[in-house]
Every structure is written in C-alpha cells, then in structure tokens.
Amino acid sequence: MASTETQPKTEDELVAKDATATTTTTAAVADRKTDPGDLAGLEAGLDALDTRTSDRTPLPVLLRRKALPPLIAVVLVLGLWQAAFALNLKPDYQLPSPLMVWDALAEEWYKGTILSIIWQSVSRGALGFVVALLIGTPLGLLVARVRPVRAAIGPILSGLQSLPSVAWVPAAIIWFGLTDATIYAVVLLGAVPSIANGLVAGVDRIDPLHLRAGKVIGATGLSGVRHVLLPAALPGYIAGLKQGWAFSWRSLMAAELIATSPELGAGLGQLLETGRSYQDMPLVLGAILLILLVGIGIELLIFAPVERRVLRHRGLLR
Predict the structure, then answer these.
(1) Alpha helices in 34-113 (DSSP H)
(2) Mean of the per-residue pLDDT values for the chain?
(3) Is the pLDDT of residue 33 over 50?
(4) Is 318 helix (H, G, I), strand (E, B) or coil?
(5) CA distances from 112 to 116, 118, 166, 284, 295 (A)
(6) I need a surface site. Which of 49, 85, 136, 287 has the fewest CB within 10 A?
(7) Nearest CA among 89, 70, 99 for reference residue 285
(8) pLDDT per position as a tens digit, 282-317
C-alpha cells in the first residue's frame, strides 16, 4: 500500500519539475530577446551598415576617375582629325587641321571680340531660359494636376517639344522683325514645352501616398505645391530643366544663325554664319567648337552638381 501511494506523488513531482523547467527556459529566452544590450548592439550594427564613409577621395584618384577619361576621348578625336587631314581625305579648305582651327580662334581672340561674342550668346540663353522657367513651371503644374487642361494642352506640349526650333525662326522674323524679340521668342518656344513636360513626368511618378500624407498634415494649395509636390517631383523636374536648357541653347543658335543683323550684335550663331559666308572653314569649325564647349560647361558647372546633390540627398547616389 505504501508503495502504491508513493508512485502518483512521484509522477506529480516529475510533471511539476518539467513545468518549472519549461517556464524557466521560456523566461530566459524572453530575457534574451528583450535584453537592452542586445538591442543596442543590433541597432549599432544597422547604423554601421547605413553609415557612409566621409573620407575624401584623394585628388590624384579623383583626377584619374573624372578627368582622365574625357581627356583620353579628346586626344583620340584630335588624333583621328589630324590623321584625316594628313591623309588628305578632303581639301584643306574643306577639312582644316586642328592647328588651323586654333589659329582662327586665336585671331578672333587677338581682335578682342571672342569674349564679347560668347557673352552675347550666353546672356541671351540665360535670360531666355529664366523666362522659360517662369512660364514652364506653372504650366507644367497646371497640366499635371488639372485633368481637363492636361487633355487639352498635353498633346500640344508634346508636339511643340518634338518640333525643330529652327521652324519657328521665319515666323518669328515676320512677327517681330530682326530684333531681340525674335530670338527670345524662338528660345521660349523651344524651352517651355521641355520644362513643362519634365515637371509633368516628375509629378506623375510621385507616390499617391505622399500626396495623401501631405493633405493629412494640412499641406494643401500652394503650401502643398511648395512642400510636397515640387520636392517629390524634383528628379523629373531637374531632368526637364536640363532638357529645357539644351532646347533653349539649340533654339538660340538657330535664331542667331538665321536672324542676322547689325542691330542684333554678334553672337556665336552670327560668328558661324560669318564663317560660312566667307567660306572660312577653320572659323566655322571654331565656332562649332565654342558652341559645344559652352553647352558642356553649363551642364558641368550648373546642372550636374545640382542633380548629384538631389540624388545623393535621396540616397540614390554615393
């Protein structure tokens, strides 16, 4: 009898011990999961992964990465150009050597006219681009946010963007004569559609959740445009600005090339037309090179740094 009564008690004790062990194990696991030290270590590891190194790239390495590739490309182009001249593929009055083009530009420099010619075109292009920016930005917002306006004007903007700018020059000459208004009209007609379409494309890529969040915090109307819509559409907007500058520069050259008059002053387009009228091929190629260099310089000095800053701020570029 004594042994019969002892057995159940032993089984109860075993069950109790197992339950106690299980509880102890669960508590230990929970303690490990919620240990502040472990969480701190995990957060530190994640921060280390997200932290970007702020070490500056050495100047020789930066020059090798940034300056060497375009320098090699320029040397190759000049080498091929000189080889074509040496092989006499074309007569020298049709295909001058790089040195002949350099001499033509040096002659313009010694005349003291080259800087004023460049400034005349750059100032016109900058002013026309600023006016196109002031017109194209609200127009793009209107097209992007108002459906009836988009249905009515959207296709027209796309058509105007694809229309060659030179097509507007004869009409502008008839409207305004040989004046600065003709040149600025051509620049605006070339740049405004690109800026507006770029902004429309940027707005179309905004996550609708961002717009709803802006409405929740009270960012509506002009406040919503300033603090939510434009910042969210900034990458597409900057792409539109770059394209708008390219179109304005091309439009300006087309207008200066055709609308020539002493009252209009001398720009790069007029310099190009002067070389053509005198059959001066070195001057023609020199003017083309100056137009190319100004376009590249504006891109590298203004638009490329702004685009890099925006992309880096959004974590899209290191």
Answers:
(1) 36-50, 59-66, 68-86, 98-111
(2) 76
(3) no
(4) coil
(5) 8, 12, 30, 18, 22
(6) 49
(7) 99
(8) 899 999 999 999 888 888 888 888 877 877 776 666
As given in the structure block, the two tokens for residue 28 are 């230990």
User: 267-281: string of b/e by CB count within 10 Å (b at 16+)?
Assistant: bbbbbbbbbeeeebb
User: What DSSP assignment string belongs to 136-186?
Assistant: HHHHHHHHHH-HHHHHHHHHHHHHHHHS-GGGHHHHHHHHH-SSHHHHHHH
Both structure tokens of 15: 């069950």
Centroid of chain to Cα 278:
39
Distance CA(125)–CA(90), nearest Å, equals: 35
Structure token pair of residue 73: 């490309």
Residue 246's contacts (CB-CB under 8 Å, 6 or more residues apart) are: 194, 295
Distance, in Å, from the CA atom of 249 to the CA atom of 290, rounded to the nearest integer, reads: 12
Rounded Cα gap, residues 161 and 63, in angstroms: 37
CA distance 47 to 221: 38
Given the structure tokens 């530009």, which residue do they identify? Answer: 105
The position carrying tokens 């009270």 is 218
Contact yes or no for 196/140 (Cβ under 8 A): yes
pLDDT value, residue 197: 87
> Are 286 and 132 spatial neighbours (Cβ–Cβ below 8 Å)?
no
d(CA 9, CA 74): 96
How do residues 191-230 score in pLDDT, each as one tens digit?
A: 888 888 888 887 777 766 666 666 666 666 666 666 666 7
CA contacts within 13 A on the Cβ side of 141: 17
Amino acid, single-letter form, for residue 247? F
Whether 222 and 279 have beta carbons less than 8 Å apart is answered as no
Quote the CA–CA distance of 117 and 252 in Å, as a whole number. Answer: 13
CA gap 210, 216 in Å, rounded = 10
